[in-house]
Amino acid sequence: MKKILNDPYSYVDELLEGLVAAHPEYYRRLGANGRVIARAGTPKPGKVGIVTGGGSGHLPVFTGYVGPGLLDACAVGDVFASPSVDQMADSIRAANAGAGVLRLYGNYGGDIMNFDMAGDVVEMEDIRTTTVIVADDVASAPTAEAHKRRGVAGMVYAFKIAGAAAEAGLDLDAVTEVAQAAADACRSVGVALTPCVVPQAGKPTFSIGENEMEIGMGIHGEPGVRIGPLVGADAIADEMLDILLADRPVEKGERLSVMVNSLGATPPEELYILYRRVKARIDAAGGTIVMPLIGRYATSMEMTGVSFTLCRLDPRLEGYLTAPAACAFWRV
Amino acid sequence: MKKILNDPYSYVDELLEGLVAAHPEYYRRLGANGRVIARAGTPKPGKVGIVTGGGSGHLPVFTGYVGPGLLDACAVGDVFASPSVDQMADSIRAANAGAGVLRLYGNYGGDIMNFDMAGDVVEMEDIRTTTVIVADDVASAPTAEAHKRRGVAGMVYAFKIAGAAAEAGLDLDAVTEVAQAAADACRSVGVALTPCVVPQAGKPTFSIGENEMEIGMGIHGEPGVRIGPLVGADAIADEMLDILLADRPVEKGERLSVMVNSLGATPPEELYILYRRVKARIDAAGGTIVMPLIGRYATSMEMTGVSFTLCRLDPRLEGYLTAPAACAFWRV
Fold first, then answer.
1. Sorted alphabetically, which InterPro entries does this protein's record hold (chains A, B) (predicted)?
2. Residues of A catalogued as catalytic
3. Helix B11-22 vs helix A268-284: crossing angle, to nearest 10
4. Is the complex ipTM higher than 0.85?
5. Which residues of A are less than 8 Å from B291 in CB distance?
6. What does the pLDDT read at residue B221?
7. What count of Cα atoms within 13 Å lies in the side-chain half-sphere of residue B161?
8. Interchain CB contacts (distance < 8 Å): A and B
9. Which one, of B145, B157, B167, B211, lies nearest residue B67 by Cα?
10. In degrees rounded to 5, what are phi and psi of residue A164?
């Protein structure tokens, strides 16, 4: 694994500088040390704000999804590290347009602790906040302990659906309820083939044998559920779908979106080979796929691997999912 | 390098199957063996058709760029291999709406030979064709022999600009002239850090030392101009820009688009670190960047590396570049 960078300690600041220079129509940089990305322009008065935050190294997650119909602001941590309380408080202030702010992020201890404290800070400034935590990675805890699961690519659905609800003018409690419904509708699982390198560490986050894969591995290299020989695309798709469908089966007539997501280095050619099998399986189960998302939506830099996310839709969620939205990485 | 696939010999057919299953609103599959991708729906009567073609393994190039405001059809070869004459003739037929068809593709011997023969075939069916060959890779031949250069990511600009001209209703000669102007406006150079694996070969296309990079390497692993130690992002950006600007300087007040393109595995974080330097250099030269393209626009599967393309704009080219267009990989 080879990386193109300057000083590893300026990796995040330099990438944010480039991001904002490239896309000033979407992003502006705020905060004492420039670690908050907010939507370009001023917040729409009376619109509920939505913020997220988390470690860097997952583009488009997190900060890429700031934009109309999506998020209002994002607190940006170092690679794979939580943003600070100050950065999160600044992101909440940036997103506040007088109607309160939803904190919508993944289920990681550091993020929860800091976002909770940031909420306490802004409460003293009369900014009301609510919280929805995305916990969609079925490989990270059993069904009975679903609240302990890590948040992975299901976040993208939650951002999109909650963002559309806020854009439609719903109030804070209603946006929060929609975001929770979106989070609850998602189930994900990943497979990793190679690790990635955190710039400041300078070496791979973990190792996988030359002809092996790890099913269920987390996006930071958290241990998966099974290490085994690297098998063919259809067999990989089947094992991942079996895990997802054991947790929650697809019902006949159900409408759902499917994400086949590259963790970074895996090219779109391979995603389409996998999607072919996923679609055949969902069709056979009697489900109908709406707006499949095939690409790089939630990554770990140059990690090789993929994740699948199934997002069950009812008419309300489907309407918000397919509503217009735009950021530098995704247009709906 | 690990790949997710089934039979290497069904790699291209399976990925096309998945592509069309995922995005029927953009693509349909045609031809005796399904190796032509055409726009969904029927051709707009009287619109000039634009076809391209080439080897697989470069998504979104080639076939991804079929869509409104872009291409009408694409002949799809095996990985890194030219499509057949029959496939190219079928792609021309699919793109024909009675106003003739522009063949717009990269400067590779096999593609030229087969597209020339395909033109002869369809001429007997009274389909008029013209040709524009993109040859933008400055590292592949000196300025005095620019016609010998390989076609790389500059193709994306040519597809976009010619596609908008055809959509605007220009006739075949005028679309051809615009496409040639777009091709002439582009200069590219790449740097490779790691190779990729052609599925049917099963081993890397070339090798680069653990701490080395190759400046000027082609997208199929064609030799570059210099192998050297892997240096920092700013130094890489400077060397690539020096090569591009030596071939054609940026003039004060000039407007241009810049593409910072991942060859596959290189993540967007690194592209933005590079773009930061590119923008500073172009700003210093007095140029104005319009619509920078930062992402994966022309790839070689899981190859690590980047390419830069500069596309000089006049008001006409800028208008076509920024006109609406849509495919599964890109929306303008």
1. DhaK_dom, Dihydroxyacetone_Kinase
2. 58, 220
3. 60
4. yes
5. none
6. 84
7. 31
8. 153
9. B167
10. -70, -35
Compute the nearest-CA separation of A133 from chain B (Å): 25
Q: Which domains does chain A have, with CATH numbers?
A: 8-185+321-331 (3.40.50.10440), 186-318 (3.30.1180.20)
Q: Choose the catalytic residue: B220, B277, B281, B312.
A: B220
**Residue B42: its pLDDT value, please?**
83
CA dihedral (A203, A205, A209, A211) in degrees, to 10, reads: -100
Q: What is the mean pLDDT of residues B30-40?
A: 95
Residue A299 gets which letter from DSSP? -
Q: Work out the pLDDT band at B278, boundaries 50, 70, 90.
A: very high
Q: Are B147 and B135 in contact (CB under 8 A)?
A: yes
Whether residue B330 has pLDDT greater than 80? yes
A115 touches chain B (CB under 8 A): no
Searching chain B, which residue's CA lies closest to the CA of residue A234? B6
Ranges in chain A, pLDDT < 70: none
Residue in B21, B266, B296 nearest the CB of A4: B266
d(CA B176, CA B61): 20
The residues, any chain, with a CB within 8 Å of residue B42's CB and separated by 6 or more, are: none
What digits encode the pLDDT tens for the residues B55-70? Answer: 999 999 999 999 999 9
**pLDDT tens digits, one per residue of B2-11:** 999 999 999 9
DSSP A139: G
Output the average pLDDT for chain A.
96
